[in-house]
Each structure stands twice: as C-alpha cells, then as structure tokens.
Amino acid sequence: MAGAPPVPADSPRAPAGLLQRVLGFRTIVSTSAGLAFAAVNFLAVLAILGSARGILAPIAILGAGALCMLAVAIFGELNGTLPSAAGIRVWTLRGLGDPFSLAFTLLYLGTVLAVIAADGFVLAAALRAALPAVPGALWILLFLTGALIANLRSVRTAGAVQDLTTYALLAALVLVGLAALRAPGHLPPVPAAWPAGLFGGLALAVFVFMGFEWVTPLAEEVRRPAQMPQGLALAVLLLAVAFGLFALVAGRLPGVAAAGLAPQLTVGRAALGAAGFWIMLGVTVVTAGTTFNGGFVAASRLLYALGRSGFLPAPVGRLNARFVPARALWVLYGVSVALTLLVFATGRYLILINAGAALECAMYVVAALALLGLRRRMPEAPRTWTAPGGRWVPIAAIAVFGGLGIGALLAADNLPLPGVPWTAVLLVALSLGAWRYAALRLRARARERAGRPAPRPQAHGASAPPG
After folding, report:
1. Count of domains in the chain?
2. In a domain, 168, yes or no
C-alpha cells in the first residue's frame, strides 16, 4: 500500500523472500540438543564403556562436554558477528575466502545426511526388536515423512515439535536412568583403567555431542540471536547429564554389553520391567524424531541460503507462502530416504558414523580458523558475544578436534579389506567432488557478473546471501 511503513525483517508479516523471527530461547536449546540426541548415541556409550570402564565412562562424557564448550565459544562468537541462515558459508567466506568456503559448506551438509541415515538404521533395528512383523523400511519412510510434513507446515510447527520431543525424551531418559540405579542385580564395580582408559573414552565421548551447533542456521528465525551461545551451552550440559547417567547405569547392568543395536531397551527393562522396555522404545522413537526434524530444519535453511545466493539451483532458494524453503525440504527428504534405505538394506552404518564424526571435527577446526580470520579481517565489526580467552580458545579447538578427526578417519568400519581406511577414501572422494563443483560454479558466477550490472544491495544486512 502506498505510504505504508516498511515491514521489518523480523516481523511475522515479513515479505516473501525473508525468513520470520518467531523462535525463542527454548527452541534454540531443544533444536541444539535434539540434533545431537541421536539413537546412535546409545551405541556410542557402549563403545565408551569398552574403553573407559566403570566410573570413568560418565566422567569421560562430562569431560567431553567440557571440551565441546570450546566449540560453543567459537560458534557463539561467529553467530554474534555474522548471524545468518547461511551460517558456515558466511563465516568461512569472510574468514577464509572462496572456493574453500563453498566446497566445505557442501561437504558439511553430508554430516546431516550421514547422521539421519545412521539414526534411521538404528531406529528400524529397535522397532523390529519390538514389532518384528512390521518391515523396518516402513518405519523409516513413516518417520522421515512425518518430519517433512512438520517442516512444510511452518517453522513454528517444526519448533513446537522439537520442543515437545526433545524435552520429553530428556526427562524420560533421566527418570529411567534414576530407576535403573535402584534396580537389583548390578554387576560388581569394574576397576578403572587410569589414565589410558579415560583418555580413550574421552575421545569417543566427544561424538555423543556431534551436531549440537546445527541450530546456528536458524539465526534469522530466532527472536534474539544474541541468546545463541547460552542456548548452545545449555544444550551441551543437558546432553552431558543425560548420557552421563545412561553410561553410569549401562556399565552396572548385566546384559547391556551384548544388547546389539538397542542397549537402551535392555536398560529400560532392567529399570522398570516391561514398562521400561516400552518407555525406552518410545525414547528411541522420539530421539529419531528430533534428529530427523531438527536435521531438516537446519539443513534446509543452509540449502535455501545457497540457493538464494545462486550457488545451487534457484528454486531451492525460494520460500513458499508459509515462509518455508519447501523445495529445499523436498530435496533433503528425497536424498535422506534414498541414503537411509541403502544403509538399512546393507547394514553398513559404521562408515557413516565415522564420516559424520570426522566431518564434525573438521567443522570445529574450520570454525576456529574462520574465527581467527574474522578477527583479523573484521576487527571493528560489532559482536553481540565474544569468546573468552583470546586466541587460546580457537587454537585449543584446532588441536583437540583435529586429533579426534584423524582418529575418526582411521576408525574401524566393518567393510571389506579392513586395512583400507574407507572413511578417509569416502571423504576424499566427496571433497574432490565438492571442490570441483565449487570451482565450476564460481567461474560461472564470475562470467554472469561480467555480463551484467552489479546487483543492488540486500535490505536485510547480515542475512544477505554470501558471495
């Protein structure tokens, strides 16, 4: 209407093409914790118990949570400097430059897909243990479709689903864990292997928190982006308490180590009998729901940001009438279904876990390098939050997560020719493909810009598409 005042970008009535600022602090925490709260984490706890026995297992998980606070500090400052749906693309572009930024952003999307596929496999295995008459592939399709529908409705709906599911499963896991502590028949205490056992368990336990930073692409949809660091820190704390308690219980109950792909069901039965079994099955289902739903929320915003900036096909970068990147969601859904069903058919899920863990560690290293680059290139930029400790925090993160990432690349994957590091081979191939695509797209963009006038400045500041 003529003469009407402009609508702010953070208004629920923002014009088409802009995201809506409608999410609160509660959803920051639930999305961050829910993305990391994957069903495969129960298997990770068993691996931790194999190294850090007895009381050292929960200590290792709490220590890993403390290490992840390094990443919290880094992502908090990055988000406080350049809050954007493009997230890692913006930070690496400004801090490290192209084409590395675009190639790594594309590669990082593989982390989301790897965790979704591995979690879908574990979900199907747990449900088949309880309901063997229902095909596992049907469960996978059902839950992925449910996550798609929730995300297509609106970000408010997706956020409400994430709040409900994440906090419900955290409460259920803690309550079952406390009940299991009082269950009879505990094994005698296992001597702790100090210090090698603790260090080995610590390296494994870091992966329990994998993905908590994926909430940062929602920076354009949260009402107060400055609350992102506090939300990340609280999510890491909740994960440390929940899985630390589960590790304490799992290490003291008989039969958990031989429980196959669903140790949580054994813990639930020991704690509360048949009721506990079904409660923990429900926890597994909700866990997969948070991973699928949260993964779709975060990854679709990153795809949308790449599409609106011209680095992916333009339809991916459009919003529908509900302010949702529907095309990006459909792309994610199709790839997730295909990859998850492939993993379910072959049973080869370890390579995805290892690849996801390695990419996640690489993400922390790259984020630390981008932070150092941004401090050097944009020293006067306003920051809503600054990581304490000066250069020591990013330097420590590079050392810690760089070593852990190398370990993930060389971890066992149960594939033929066990002497071959298949995880490293896979990531090298994907990296070369991403680099090639980035180089071709950047050259195409340069030709397009050479033949037309410079684009008009974006009206929404830090949320403008990078590049």
Report:
1. 1
2. yes
